[in-house]
Automatic annotation (TrEMBL):
This protein's name: glucose-6-phosphate dehydrogenase (NADP(+))
Residue stretches making up the Glucose-6-phosphate dehydrogenase C-terminal domain: 172-217
Reactions listed under catalytic activity: D-glucose 6-phosphate + NADP(+) = 6-phospho-D-glucono-1,5-lactone + NADPH + H(+)
Coiled coil: none
Originating gene: g6pd
Length: 217
């Protein structure tokens, strides 16, 4: 499912579809699963609302995709990944952006292997670490220290979806503390409030991850 989300967003959220990425942008997936780009495409299509006029653009998008299978703690697998990246247009001069949508428990191995095996020698390198950023304050600080030992701060981007909780909690403060919203955020002006969770599945296949980082831990 996570593959579906990320591939769908890259295309549908106007990034590739509307030409908002550099022309020579290529997408390389890396994971333990034995997959192909064709299999990923078939899994994504039912979840992607693509107009007939966008079919050619979608084909162009997937033609820029490739996939490498390997273990996260295997230096040889990351060496193979690096060789594949060198084979793409731009080679060693290309910029590299590594997006880690992974459990925090394997960030150490992955980031270490990226640092020692996969960095561009002439272009810039960036690492995006997606939530959850650790499971508590101590593990979060340890992960931050680990990343700082491998990359400079301007190379690291952290995404933690849980940070949105504070924003939601502050909606009442935003309403009553702002002259613009106070008079209009009421039952006369707001027809309804809708909370949508568009996930047609549970924790199938992700029980261990959910136990460590989910709401019941």
């Amino acid at each position: 499912h996570r593959n579906v989300v990320h591939y769908s967003v890259l295309f549908l959220r106007w990034l590739f579809r509307d030409g908002l990425l550099p022309e020579q942008t290529f997408f390389v997936g890396f994971a333990r699963s034995d997959l192909t780009v064709d299999a990923i495409r078939k899994a994504c299509l039912p979840h992607m609302k693509v107009a007939d006029t966008e079919a050619d653009r979608l084909s162009a998008f997937f033609s820029r995709n490739s996939y490498i299978s390997g273990k996260y703690n295997d230096e040889g697998a990351f060496s193979n990944l690096h060789s594949h990246l060198l084979s793409l247009p731009g080679g060693a001069e290309a910029n590299r952006l590594f997006y880690l949508a992974l459990p925090p428990s394997i960030y150490h191995d992955v980031t270490k292997n990226i640092r020692h095996q996969c960095l561009s020698t002439k272009g810039w390198n960036r690492v995006i670490v997606e939530k959850p950023f650790g499971r508590d304050l101590q593990s979060s600080q340890e992960l931050s220290d680990h990343l700082s030992s491998l990359f400079t701060e301007d190379q690291i981007y952290r995404i933690d979806h849980y940070l949105g909780k504070e924003m939601v909690q502050n909606l009442m403060v935003l309403r009553f503390g702002n002259r613009i919203f106070g008079p209009i955020w009421n039952r006369e002006s707001v027809a309804c409030v809708v909370l949508t969770f568009k996930e047609p599945f549970g924790t199938q296949g992700r029980g261990g991850y959910f136990d460590d980082f989910g709401i019941i831990r």
